[in-house]
Write the structure tokens for this entry.
Amino acid sequence: MPASGTRIPVVLLHDAAVDEFISSMLLSVMPGIDLLGIIIINADCIAEPAMQASSRLLQFMGRTEIPVALSRARGWNAFPWAYRKDCVCFNELSILKGYNPQVPTPPPDGEALLAKLLREAILTNRPLTLLMTGPVTPLVDTLSKEPSLAKGVGQIVWMGGAIDVSGNLDPQTINSVVANTHAEWNAFWDPYSVETIFRLFGGINMFPLDISDSAPVTSEFRNALKQQGEKYRYSQLAYEAYSLVASEPFYRLWDVTATCWLTRPDLYTPATTMPLTIEQWGFEQGWIHKPLTLGAEKPQNVFFSFADLQGFYKYVLELLATNGGR
């Protein structure tokens, strides 16, 4: 939790999957969080409907003052189209139909927004928390142009990687030539940027599949949202959103897992600090692991498990028990 009277300045960088839109809602109601901007990455989504959905969601929340921009980052390994359709479905949710997207063509530049916010953080001595629930490429691209902006980064929270569990590259969905068993998609999309981030920053708070695998979208959780939705519009939206992926047994609260740590670290087992490296070439591309030999790798903070899993679900439900001030 933030200290009394302070608010954590947060920038959310995500790639517009269902769970990430829910993270946006959670950040808007979390105590002590100041959500300064949202940057969407054209990775596990389709850019135009992703931007439209984000615009509709901010109107739904009554938070249109929060700037939203589209990253110009490009990945190495593209997400399958079958995965990227979730943002289209979210954009068409009945609960959002009454809101007209307000997205200029072309959309605002994500790296320009990130650079602006980092400059302001340095000037005000208020370093940013970067909550990254997609690839890390936008940060790398921004710092490659203006390295001094790294001084504006207070902490990095990243949902990415798989350390002691299998990755999530599905050989039924992508070609077996690249579908190794170790890589996680947010790292696999651009392993070169992950290597750069590991080289530039130590103490990254990482939430890999090791922890998020234990947080499925259960029927009990969805039923609780449905019941709350009779009274609270945030819960109703979350229920409709997670119903889109109810037929996908592999779906997890990947991004919500990383998000809730910001204000309820007590729900998590303390992080394990370890040096990490990532495979950049070959069949194991995107595999994050401990280096075979110790070198100059910086130690990162890896969260492997919940201390109170049921408390985590309860906290999410508590945050969504709101009508957003309406």
About this structure: The chain has 13 helices and ten strands. The domain at 8-319 is CATH 3.90.245.10 (Inosine-uridine Nucleoside N-ribohydrolase; Chain A).
